[in-house]
Write the structure tokens for this entry.
Amino acid sequence: MANGDAAIVKPAAAASIDHAAVVAPTRVRHTVLWLTVVAYMITYIDRVVISAAVPSIQEEFGFSIVTMGWILGAYQLSYALFQIPGGWLGDRFGPRRALPAIVTWWSAFTAATALTWSATSMIVCRFLFGMGEAGAFPIATRSLSRWMLPSERGFAQGITHAGSRLGGALTPVVVVFIIAHYGWRAPFYIFAVLGLLWAAVWYWFYRDSPNEHRMVNAAERELIANALGNTAKQSKIVPWRRILRSPQMWLLSAMYFCYGYDIGIFLTWFPKYLHAERQFELQQMGIYASLPLLAGVAGDICGGWFSDLALKRTGNLKFARRVVAIPGFLIAAVTIPLACLANDPLVSVGYFALAVFGIELTVGVSWAVTLDIGGVYAGSVSAVMNTFGNLGAAIAAAMTGYIVTASGWTSAFFVLAGYSLLAAILFTRIDASKRVYEDAAVS
């Protein structure tokens, strides 16, 4: 009888094992990704809202263009300065606590913008707002580092940045509508509440590790663990000396400086170029200035997707990142001069759209590289890279005015082509398979 009982139990146990083996992995990591996309959209919504409100603010306070420049510049300066502290915050305390904390911070100062009473108070408010937003991209990158598979990182970074660009493109339309009905202060309050709601949802849902999330089944935990390896022994001390000594870190930062200079022109000076050089009327200018940015959204998505596809097919991480980024920068290097030299304004806009598509092909790849080489310290690595990118954008905004005054718009855009070519050359030296620190030093 005992042997008969054993014979009955054995098949039952085997059936249980077989059933567990065929359970499909959950997709909690994808929910984490889409929450991150929403966060990126909120960052651009909150930073763009003041641009749409500038005419109303000037009308009420009588601020000059120079004064408004200082108000808007306070954000850009703060945003660049606090990239590294923001990334450190995410690596030190974890994205579950750090990200909702900074979103709450900048949401508070989004609302506070509507309460300012002078140029000085608005400058201070926007500077403090920038301090909070500075940590968004580095910490969000860190939040994905323990969740996204290497074969999903390119798409993840592409779709998040596409979300940010889309949020920035759609915000002016919404803000103008709200201002027309409720005044310029209303959108600041509304979008502040949106940020607070997101922070609450993130803190409730997100966990710093898949092992801590109750909705993740064993199959998804195993899938992530096999892909990423053991990161349980992360040191809370960020190895800054090793990171900053890494040649990969400085190659990546120099490349992203070039990217920041390039995209910065399209975010600041391109509408003015269409109006002053191509003689577009204001209404036409708004429409055609948006086309390159919409092309950039497509570039964000396509670049990350294609890089992940290349990685799946070749298994070569270095090749998968380079095969997208290098052609992307080369596309921009070729099409920007063609756009400047085209006689037909519409043909020129078409070439510029192709250029921005090429530039944005590189974004998801660049941020995926911060995950590849930064590992559990991706927040700090991405913060260093993004600091240089924002310095490039800030310099572009200032230098272009001088270049145009001295030698015209064509020269200014040829500088962009030169930076695109330089970025392509730099990317030939970036190896996404080389970590910026020695694993043994942080184990």
Notes: The radius of gyration is 24 Å. The chain has 19 helices and no strands.
